[in-house]
Automatic annotation (TrEMBL):
Keyword annotations: Oxidoreductase
FAD dependent oxidoreductase domain segment(s): 11-355
Pfam family, one: DAO
Name this polypeptide is given: Glycine/D-amino acid oxidase-like deaminating enzyme
Keyword Flavoprotein: no
GO cellular component: cytoplasm
InterPro entries per record: FAD-dep_OxRdtase (IPR006076), FAD/NAD-bd_sf (IPR036188)
Keyword Oxidoreductase: yes
GO molecular function: oxidoreductase activity
Species annotation: Sagittula marina
Amino acid sequence: MQCPKPSISTAVIIGGGIFGVSTAAELCRMGVQVTLVNDGPLANGASGRSLAWLNSARRRSLPYHRLRLAGIERYRVLADRTPGIDWLSFAGGLTWDAEDDSNEIADIYRHERALGYPSELLSGDDVTRRIAGVDGSQVTSAGAILNGNEGWVDLPSLINKLASEVTELGGTIVTDAGPASLIVEDGHCTGAVCADGRSFNADKVLLATGPAVPAIVAEQGITIGDDTPVALLVETHPTAHPLQTVLNTPRVAIRPTPDGAFFLDSGWSEEEVIVHDDGSFEAPEETVSQLISEARKVLSGAPDLTVKAVHLGPKPIPGDGEPVFGELQELPGCFVAFSHSGATLGLVAGELLAEEMALELRHPLFDPFRPERFAN
């Protein structure tokens, strides 16, 4: 049986993050002529400041869980096909909760086990013995959950790989073109026009501009719920340390990087980001110092961590917390990709969006996440 042929010949992708570049690569593989436009360099938005933890841990709706599992599996396939890469790891994820009434570790463990999600409950001593680089004495009395199927990806590295494939297959990537807007003719989306005046017409358009998606579709009278906060990600200088597992602890989340550094974030530090009247962001020095201190507490040997960079910017989160994928009913020809879990869903979303755009089908995995739910 032959693969179905695309029903379109051209597509424009607006956005150079993981959703945009992943979809572009899939469309190019299908023989569609793709033009991708971005307001700056590739990965200059949320994809470039993501913790990029590959997971479906804790609680969420069952359809969302299934989609995330499919996302993780795509990375497993990628890892098998590209052995030796240093920007994708499946060393597991380890999480524990605070020593107070908010601790849900026992319930989360049973919930994950009931779903068949790989989950082990470890004591602090178990953690010290089994998880390299973690100070198990910091684990609270309820224990920690080890999800052995989880991992991390360095999204800029993946985006660069996919972008190279796009150009090798004849696609065009236009960077530093300024913000783009949609071209609409007779109620249909027919392309994009960039701030620098260049316009690109196509059979189908994907809007994958991260936190800017709701505002851009609002210009067309379309509502997508938006609960986007400002995120803070601290990047350390490389240091000699054995941690490979992603940590999600009460006061800090930690993810290794390919060059031996760490990315750090947390909920409390995000809340301390200052948003100025001109729209710029600032991370107080005390907040950054405290995040470093919290990381040193949970890492074995309390390594001397120094700050290389502080990354600030909007973190895309839809209004109901779940992804938004698919064609806009109110604007045929325009597809959207707007989700918090960009790393985990990056490959599978690109695959399914490309199929929907090029083959004119609606994938059932996307049905709970259609943009029209906000209109209803």
